[in-house]
Amino acid sequence: MENRNEDNVIKRLINNVWKGLLILVGGIVFGFVALALVHLIPVDKMYQNVAASRDVINSHAQIVTGYTSTTIDNFTDSIMLNEAICDIDTGLIDKVVNNYQVNYWKGYDQQENLFRYLDGEEGYRYQGYSHYWGGHQVFIKLMLLLGDYSDILILNTIVQFLLVIMIIIRLQKMGKGYAVLPFCITIASMMPVAIALCMQLCTVYYVMLFGILMLIRKYEKSPHSDMCYVFLIIGMATSYVDFLTYPFVSLGIPLVIWLILDNEEKVIQKLGKMVWNSGFWCAGYVGMWAGKWILGSILLPEAGSLKAALESISYRGSNKTTDGVITLWDVIMKNAYVYLRKPILVVVICMIVYYLCKMIVNKNLKLNIISNIFPFLIVACYPLIWYRIAENHSYEHVFMAYRELAIGMFAGMCICAILARESKGQI
């Protein structure tokens, strides 16, 4: 009987891998086709709407001066808008692979390049930005047909607020209301106002929110089905739309939600599934990125530069920065300083005191509940993994990379909430 169970487990894992591979290949093809279709749309209307947004693009750097956590990345938003209206006369596959933008090659920053192009200044050349998929263009180009940059930012504010409310309601309906407060604190600590007002910062945030809703929906329909496919799709979507901002958040936050939803009693089995789900996210993230180059090389061998992309990855993962050689501790402390400012610290301390008081009053901590929080402790360390993988990027782009620490915040708050629960049952 035991051998039969082991055989069933192995067969299920092999089936997961094959099905996951099919989803990955299908996603690569679908993503490529989607980008090709939006590149077929004339850019005249988009150009007019970007031109009408000029004052908004250059209106702010930090929402609250002195708080790096509220930084708006107009530099990268300018790249995204530049790519959307770049009207290069080249092949369709070349456009999809290279994500062209206009550059005057005179030392201008990205906003200045965009503004001069909008003013009709001649002398520019086309520059490829092939390191990433650029899947955000599927949405940006379509939205620029309907409105300008400011319209997109306002729409972001509304949609993101509604998505958060939907998650809160769904968690409450599933009897996981104890996770609502930790979730709200975590979202607030990520500075959602800054995210909504910056297209670059929105990409991973949207993937995270929709990923959580996908997980909840999956559990509502079939709580015992494999969730690894959801994490695979989340990883693929992150790789497709992100410019390398704070990608691990789209793994860590949904993974904590999964831990809350999953009713597996045995901690060892839960840890195994957690590693499996994390592996599928990584396979989706890396596989989707590699898939662009594989498919691009097949369709147009001379398009793009894989060597340049690999060099960029190598540099962003190194410990060499403008401040010299750094350590992982330097990265952690710099990000923590941005993340844990006084307002956030006050809220966190108040919540810890609140949960401690509930623990003392309830007096019902049991061994099974304490053991069940162990997976949360592991997920809380996920930001350290990312900071180690991308030391240079996480140090030099701390204004967005600090959000990786929200994974630890959410996991930690959930541990407190679980230990302080009045009920004595499972998570």
Q: Would you give an account of this structure?
A:
The protein is an all-alpha fold and 427 residues long. The protein is 70% helix and 2% strand. The chain has helices at 2-39, 44-51, 54-57, 74-85, 92-98, 110-118, 136-146, 149-173, 180-189, 192-196, 199-221, 228-241, 249-261, 267-299, 306-316, 328-339, 342-362, 367-372, 374-380, 382-389, 391-396, 398-401, 406-419; strands at residues 101-103, 125-127, 320-321, 324-325. The strands form two sheets. A two-stranded antiparallel ribbon has the order 1-2. Strands 3-4 form a two-stranded antiparallel sheet. Helix 1 crosses helix 5 (92-98), helix 8 runs parallel beside helix 11 and helix 19 packs antiparallel against helix 23 (406-419). The longest helix is centred in the N-terminal third of the chain and has 38 residues, at 2-39. The protein is globular and about 75 Å long. The two termini are 30 Å apart. The mean pLDDT is 89.
